[in-house]
Amino acid sequence: MHDLSSAPLETFLIGGVGTFGMNMMAVRTNTSTVLIDAGIGFTALRHYGINVRIPDLDTIRAEFGSFDALFLTHGHEDHIGATPFIWDLLDGPIYGTRLTLALVERRLMEHGIPINDRLIPTTVGSFVAIGDLKIELLPVTHSIPDSTAVVVHSPFGTLVHTGDFKFDQDYGADIDTTVSHLAKIGRNGVLAAFSDSTNASRPGRAGSELDLQPSLEHLCKTSTGRVFVTTFASSIRRIQLLISIAQDTGRTIVFLGRGIERNVEIAERLGYISIPPRLKQPLSTLNDPQTKNILCIVSGSQGEALAALARIASNKHSSVSIEPGDTVIFSARVIPGNELSINNVKNKLALLGARVFDNDLELVHVSGHGNQDDLLQMLSLLKPKYLIPIHGEFRDLKCHATLAEQTGIIPLLANNGDRICFENSKGWLGAPIPAKSTYFNDNLSTVIKEQTITQRRAMAKTGILVVICRINRTTRQIEEQPRLITRGVSTENINISCIDDLAEAIRMLLNSALIGRTDEPKALLEECMPDLQHLAKDHFGNAPVILPVLLEN
Ligand SMILES: [Zn+2]
Ligand SMILES: [Zn+2]
Question: DSSP letter string over 502-521?
Fold first, then answer.
């Protein structure tokens, strides 16, 4: 139930709730509005050339106008990828840790955005004051270094956004720091926690990044050919682990894929990755299939058609071809919706003679997100009055809500677009804002409108029929038979006379509609469209998208 009354402290889950990606949340009081994270999400529309989406910019502009600041929890694309697109809505700086800001800086530069001095690194223990809000970032462990939670202190209560996290037991010192900071916040009272729900349905602990070492090392030692490992370009901890394993198993390392090369360069420059001298080799090393002692970290873990791994699997990569005996390891999470593409790439690699490994066969990936015990630990440290599960599909959010309820915390189960209001230590769901998306083409250069998506869907389903008619200006009749052009329409079972019949039927239909009409023929065409579609369906068996072209002579 939504309560339409407003409140002095409001949060808006603009994205990242109920579906994967597009993490974005706004916090608003009478004096200030800040944004936490600005991420992209994938779509199920890849087949139509649409791979990426962000929360709808028009909706954000209409509700908020602008933001006083953006706080970034960490450098993953589902948290920073939309920053270039909301840049114009930012009236103030972007705050984050060093690595996060370096990654977002590169993103902004790629879009030709002048950054000047608007990226402000924050350190643990320092507060940023924005209107009546005091905001601090606290360190958490995740699959990328420099990850943080965001604590928003307001006159109406303290809110904690956990960011993506798990309590990785192998990073003891980091965990101790995190625990002591979170416990202190918890002791001072937390009104609401907005917490990562990715693995809320999984019992126990998420496991440690270092748990992967034995199996990855074993695969590197036993492979007689080259080893290719695909992971996310932003999995900096995983990449560091693979560099160490390459060194320990006598392999050199090659980075393949623009995102991976770019992130490794940034992480190495800032000291988050260290690569021993001479271990890293150029891409050309892969040209010689006889050089076997290579560990290649390659992009394309989600089966993306344009990524290096998919091109290698299709034998279309200019520098690399798979040889029998090569090993390919999928060391990444399968993002919901990408299963078919990933499976396709795995099968193609196997067909070329590669040994293919994923988590079904060996322990080659652990999640960077906490399981139930991690989530319970977070709740026991923060002791919030309310939990708002975020960052998960809806059933994950529900599992997280159930966990919270069992510990006496009140869950507020929300969806994308929901407004959560707080006043006098009470929280409730307020009037939502529309939960729409803005879509982009594969390389993020062009916005794809809803109408375009609808048209692409329709054309993919049934094909297109172009009808070219000539109207005699004097008689206002179509005297020649219209010319019909089809693309993607199944015409295999139709003979030429049937197409001629359709053209003639269209001519008669339009001519009878033209009688007595003096208005623009284009308006008439719109009126005739349902009848045209019926005619086309009678002839083709289904109704293609019809594109009429009217010429006058
Ligand atoms: Zn993350
Ligand atoms: Zn995330």
Answer: HHHHHHHHHHHHHTT--S-H
